[in-house]
Automatic annotation (TrEMBL):
It comes from the Eukaryota. This is FAM20 C-terminal domain-containing protein. Mn(2+) binds at D169, D336. The lineage of its organism: Eukaryota, Metazoa, Spiralia, Lophotrochozoa, Mollusca. GO terms for cellular component: Golgi apparatus.
Amino acid sequence: MKLRQKFVFLVCISFVLYVSYKILEPEISGQSLQEQEQLEFRHLALKHNLKSQNPVNVENSSTHIKKEDVIQELIQKYRMDLSYPLNESPWRIASKWVTPREIIPESAPELGGILKALITRKIISADIGHKGTQLKMTLVLEGGQKVVFKPKRFERAHVIEGSPYSGEDRHNGEIAAFHLSRILELRRTPVAVGRMIDLNEEIKQIGRIRLLETFFNRDENTCFYGKCLYCHGPETGVCAKGSVLEGTLVLWLPEHYTLKLHKHPWARTYKEGKAAKWETDEDYCFKVTQMDLFREGPRLMDIIDTAVFDFLIGNADRHHYETFEKYNNSMIIMLDNGKSFGNPRVDEISILAPLYQCCSIRRKTWLRLLVLQDGILSEVLEVTLTQDPLNNIDPILTTLHLQALDRRLKIILDHVQQCFHKYGPNKVLIQNR
Ligand SMILES: Nc1ncnc2c1ncn2[C@@H]1O[C@H](COP(=O)(O)OP(=O)(O)OP(=O)(O)O)[C@@H](O)[C@H]1O
Ligand SMILES: [Mn+2]
């Protein structure tokens, strides 16, 4: 070929390649998106078609996705296979999962196998609970794994009245909170699963004396009152049915991640008639953002994520929070969710104060909430919870609590929307903190 012909030939080939690339471009760039982002894109498209609360700048809205398909996709994603085979110790796997920013990874098929180990492994030692105000036990399971056992204190339909932080811990709340944190893609909550424990068969032989000293019987049932700030003897104890006690096991975090306790800037005073600074100061969030800990880095956005999470579950008791001591960028560990799902009829709006006072939220969190609106959240969570062993005895959450989640989700989105009106989405949605 002559040089000129070669040149024309090359130009033609380049043109064809360019045109093909342009045609295929959406697919190609779509493929390079993370699986998570793809899902988000598709769900945004779904929302757009449903014409409900419209996210800003929706792209790809030509895709038609049915709400039912999204639900099925999410149910599939969060499904746990309890017979999933593990090729090393369940405790090793779970320990290796933990990073300064998450407790379990997005894709964790081994979770089913780990839950299975939690509910079947022999209890090799039992002691009073570690710190805190609530009755619990610290157990060690075969293979050396420490877990917290939070006993059942209420029937599922029991409604806690009174102050937003009233009542003893709800063991089922810990389970629901763990799965909710996965569905929100926050994953900062330790693994939790329901287990029935035979106090006579599984605890009495191996328990520490200081725990067993608190055991007693009431009407043929085995009971114990443990040691904690609010543990005052048999009147504050809990009783098994016969000797079998229902409760939640919470997997202990790896010991090499030492915890650091911080006072929560939006803590309550816990004194009736005495308001905290954040309750009266219009400019409170601005003042928080001037503090070293919150000026930069992820901490303030973590506080807001946690507020979203706590508002959904109805936990008004996060007076302190814990982080991993050795890491500046540590997540806020969403630990201790026992004070949740107390009253399905009350939406305790003050829990959301960090969000509406700062008028900001992580873009990623907000996108997730959009995906889950219009009843998707409750449906996905309800099905996910059926895989917990306790759900066979009694659904982990009553319908009223599931409905409350959808209602509260909408309230959160309404608040974000109000912030958009005030400051514009670009100021409100935070991308890189
Ligand atoms: N899964 C866990 N991994 C590591 N440490 C934990 C775990 N669960 C609890 N702890 C530690 O034990 C402390 C007490 O646990 P928790 O907060 O659940 O008890 P509580 O009685 O509800 O406490 P409070 O009355 O302060 O709310 C926590 O602050 C934390 O330091
Ligand atoms: Mn607590």
